[in-house]
Specification:
The protein is of the alpha/beta class. The protein has helices at about 5-15, 30-35, 50-60, 70-85, 95-100, 125-130, 155-160, 165-170; strands at about 40-45, 65-70, 90-95, 105-115, 135-145, 175-190, 195-209.
């Protein structure tokens, strides 16, 4: 096990261990909106966390695989898939994408939602590998934070997040791809103090020829 992998896994295992459930378990709204019209087939979720998107895909007819560096997150996702009765179509694997690369094969849909980390992360290489994992005629969906939440501390606001242009440069999609969506979107959320706030997301949705 490399020092980089140990650091990434320990970092995220520690963060997930801070609370019984880190995320809501619900699908990301952008994923639901853009994927719902598609014909279900095979899907890969890169950095799946506790598996909310993967389980939603399975509930909507997809055979979906989720990978994440955190063993704690993968254990939770696996248990949740059983609880929701989708374990035959929602599978999970602990994988360090920086060391192990993508799972073998091609997928009709590859997701990379909020692929950010406070530790070292070669996001460009991971996103380009994710694009290569898309089958002919399939789609790639990348969603990322465009800015820190309004309630974040000063350090978070000074931490640069990939812009839309940065994300497109990281992907470096060629003429084989048709960009269907490339924009910054706002979404309304509830802040920790109970007030309404808007978060900004970078969204890139592309179809491979």
């Amino acid at each position: 096990m490399t020092e980089l992998e140990t650091t990434a896994q320990q970092l995220w295992d520690s963060r997930y261990a801070e609370k019984p459930m880190m995320w809501s378990g619900r699908v990301n709204a952008v994923v639901a909106e853009l994927v719902a019209p598609l014909e279900p087939a095979t899907a890969l979720d890169v950095g799946c966390g506790e598996g909310g998107d993967v389980m939603w895909l399975a509930e909507h007819g997809w055979h979906a695989t989720g990978v994440d560096v955190s063993g704690v997150a993968i254990e939770r996702a696996t248990r949740a898939a059983i609880d929701r009765g989708v374990q035959s179509d929602a599978t999970f694997e602990r994988r360090d994408l920086q060391r192990d690369g993508m799972p073998t094969g091609r997928f009709d849909l590859v997701l990379a939602s909020y692929l950010h980390s406070p530790g070292e992360l070669d996001r460009r290489s991971i996103l380009r590998a994710a694009a290569q994992a898309v089958a002919s005629g399939g789609r790639l969906l990348v969603v990322g934070h465009a800015a820190a939440p309004p309630w974040a501390d000063e350090h978070a606001h000074h931490h640069a997040l990939p812009s839309l242009d940065d994300t497109r440069a990281e992907l470096a999609l060629d003429d084989e791809w048709t960009i269907e969506v490339a924009e910054v979107r706002g979404r309304e959320v509830m802040a920790p103090d109970g007030t309404s706030a808007e978060l900004l997301d970078v969204v890139v949705f592309a179809r491979r020829a």
